[in-house]
Design a protein that fits this description.
The structure holds 2 protein chains of 2 kinds. Chain A is mainly α. Helix content of chain A is about 35%, strand content about 5%. Chain A has a two-stranded antiparallel sheet with strand order 1-2. By secondary structure, chain B is α/β, with parallel strands linked by helices. Helix content of chain B is about 40%, strand content about 15%. In chain B, strand 2, helix 4 and strand 3 form a beta-alpha-beta unit. In chain B, helix 5 packs parallel to helix 6 and helix 7 packs antiparallel against helix 15. Chain B is globular and about 65 Å long. The chains are: A mainly alpha, B alpha/beta. The interface between A and B is large, with 51 and 69 residues.
């Protein structure tokens, strides 16, 4: 399987099938070709624009606030036990 | 079905109750669901409970907001307390939030009819990437409704909801509005709180409105706009009187028609634009042609920035903190088996990871952010010459299922919508004609926080045209 696709999949936390690796290669080729339109733009001296915000984004005061009550936290869970979330084991058998 | 203002009048004058209106729309939605697949989840009990509450408050003589009792549909990427919020993904099919998105809270007296279908995690232009099956276009069920807010647009077009909320990252409100013959508003980035909107690309995402008319959008925006202490990116900008300024007209304004030689618009779309431009001048506005040299570059920048942000935002869906949990022999394999996204999302996440890895970050991601600055500056300079910008909302009319299978032709759907998304500007899609019996939409773009002007212009347009009043199947 294509090493580049496998490495990307590992970084993205995705599992790829053999057929998908080929598809990923084709997709990246298309996208990088599309991104080629950025070459030749005269962006010299321009700062990268990470967001359209033109106002100062506030920081919340660092203080302790009331969170969800225990019964509220589990209220929408599919499976609970003794007032806690019941989840499958991360590793191993149920 | 009437417009939002007509329905509000009917409720206020006691012509019908909120319960009667809600029951009628729930029945219409249920009837349409088999053919159109509008909703992922319907919420009749919650809708009727809200309707009864509004009727009770009205009986008691309470002063209610204009939208009280007007039922709504909500895209399934906006959090609704106690109601599944799936983002069109099997990963989140069992996710039930404990809280409402701020916009859902602000519309708390609007009965919630249901959560509308959408492309998985808002990535798509057809609603075909939903894990819950595609939505059909009410004008022709062999065609797509557009996306990613396709369920919301189709629900309004089919007369099953007076208005719906969607989200627009790179055209996801405007393109489906155009395909379904309804009005779609993408507000300025920061104008409307995004708390509770599941993030796709945070520097681009915005909650949007789909409704039959620009005036209806004004009523809804009036209800949801404004700073939110729970969304640090919401703007502390005063909210003007959108509804009150609708009748001011646009006489004397200058509208710039963006001409892009690379846009590859369908001939029917071009014809509709030419007719719309001529009619726009009859409103008393002056039209001037402007060159748009950055269409392709904007599309390129978007398809670097949006996947890059998505690859970061969607990292939380690992089966441990959120979503479906797969089985594996170690943590990495558990995560990999859990992240069972559909193909379009997987391709975008991999592309985003590629754009951010190693030297690519400088070559692609940073380059795209600089291009974004240049394009934004270009747009701002245009507003020194004109008050609004005019273009097609999308280069084509609704296409048939299977006609645009490859991602790249699909990406060109948003060709005209993306530049204003990159710049964070407000834009509206308005029905303006038909091609081959299918709706065509035009787009107006305003300077940041210029929604009042945008809605005024849309209203003036809809006072002199009737494209927005046509029902699916009607031909002029």
């Amino acid at each position: 399987m294509d090493e580049k696709a496998l490495r990307l999949a590992r970084l993205a936390g995705l599992a790829l099938t053999e057929g998908e690796a080929e598809l990923v290669g084709k997709h990246l080729a298309r996208i990088t070709k599309l991104a080629g339109a950025l070459q030749g733009m005269n962006c010299e001296g321009l700062a990268p624009m990470a967001s359209p915000a033109t106002w100062p984004l506030p920081l919340a005061e660092d203080r302790v606030e009331a969170g969800l009550k225990q019964e509220e936290a589990v209220a929408t869970s599919k499976d609970t036990a003794s007032g806690m979330f019941r989840v499958p084991p991360l590793l191993g058998e149920d | 079905m009437g417009t939002v203002s007509e329905l509000a009048k009917g409720l206020q004058e006691g012509v019908f109750s909120a319960r009667e209106l809600t029951e009628q729309l729930l029945a219409a939605g249920e009837k349409a669901q088999t053919e159109l697949n509008l909703y992922i989840t319907t919420t009749p009990e919650r809708a009727l409970a809200t309707a009864d509450r509004v009727d009770q408050l009205r009986k008691q003589g309470a002063k209610l907001p204009p939208l009280a009792g007007i039922p709504m549909a909500i895209k399934d990427n906006l959090a609704t307390a106690g109601v599944a919020t799936t983002c069109g993904s099997r990963l989140l099919k069992d996710y039930v939030p404990q809280f409402n998105a701020t916009v859902v809270d602000r519309l708390g007296l609007c009965p919630l009819l249901g959560k509308t279908n959408m492309d998985e995690f808002a990535m798509g232009s057809s609603t075909g990437t939903s894990a819950f099956g595609p939505t059909a276009n009410p004008w022709d069920s062999t065609r797509v409704p557009g996306g990613s807010s396709g369920g919301s647009a189709a629900a309004v077009a089919a007369g099953c909801a007076p208005f719906a909320l969607g989200s627009d990252t790179g055209g996801s409100v405007r393109q489906p509005a155009s395909f379904c013959g309804v009005t779609g508003l993408k507000p300025t980035w920061g104008r409307v709180s995004r708390r509770g909107l599941v993030a796709f690309a945070s520097s681009l995402d915005q909650v949007g409105i789909l409704a039959r008319t620009a005036a209806d959008c004004a009523y809804v925006l009036q209800g949801i706009a404004g700073v939110d202490a729970l969304d640090a990116t919401s703007a502390p900008e005063p909210v003007p009187d959108y509804v009150g300024s609708l009748e001011q007209g646009i006489e004397g304004l200058t509208i710039g028609w963006l001409r892009d030689p690379h846009s590859e618009d369908q001939p029917g779309v071009t014809r509709a634009m030419e007719q719309a431009a001529a009619q726009l001048e009859q409103t008393g506005a002056r039209l001037v042609e402007l060159d748009m040299p950055y269409g392709r570059q904007a599309l390129a920048a978007y398809h670097v920035i949006a996947p890059a942000e998505a690859s970061s935002n969607l990292a939380r869906f690992d089966g441990v903190r959120y979503g479906f949990r797969g089985k594996g022999v170690d943590y990495a394999s558990v995560v990999a088996c859990s992240r069972q996204f559909g193909q379009e999302v997987r391709l975008r996440l991999l592309a985003g990871t590629f754009m951010l890895s190693g030297e690519n970050q400088q070559d692609y991601y940073t380059a795209a952010l600089k291009a974004r600055r240049l394009i934004t500056g270009f747009f701002l300079s245009l507003f020194d010459q004109v008050d609004l910008l005019f273009s097609p909302a999308t280069p084509l009319v609704a296409f048939r299922w299977g006609e645009r299978e490859n991602p790249l032709p699909m990406y060109f759907n948003d060709y005209h919508a993306i530049p204003s998304s990159l710049a964070g500007l407000p834009a509206i899609a308005l029905p303006c004609g038909h091609a081959n019996g299918l709706p065509v939409g035009m787009q107006l773009v305003a300077p940041a926080f210029g929604e009042a002007l945008l809605l005024r212009a849309g209203h003036a347009w809809q006072q002199m045209t009737d494209w927005h009043l046509l029902q699916p199947g009607e031909v002029k």
